[in-house]
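Journal club side-thread
Mid-discussion, someone asked how the predicted structure for our own chain would compare to the paper's figures. Pasting it here so we can look after the session.
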Amino acid sequence: MGGGFRASWIFPLVLAGFIQPNQGQEKQKVDCYNSVEGTIYNYGAVTIDGREYVPFRKYKGKMILFVNVATY
């Protein structure tokens, strides 16, 4: 009986996934470091095990979530 209450947090999360950004938000650009040239697609990252280099241009046009695992 308590299973519905425990899973109730997932419904708002699923709804939030369907929210699309406004057209003005999609084109926002943030210039954090003036010394860095180009876009994110000019760079890449090495996998955690160090065996593979992943170029970010491979994901152009898709949403990318960066997670900093270096502090763990």
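Post-session note: The mean pLDDT is 76.
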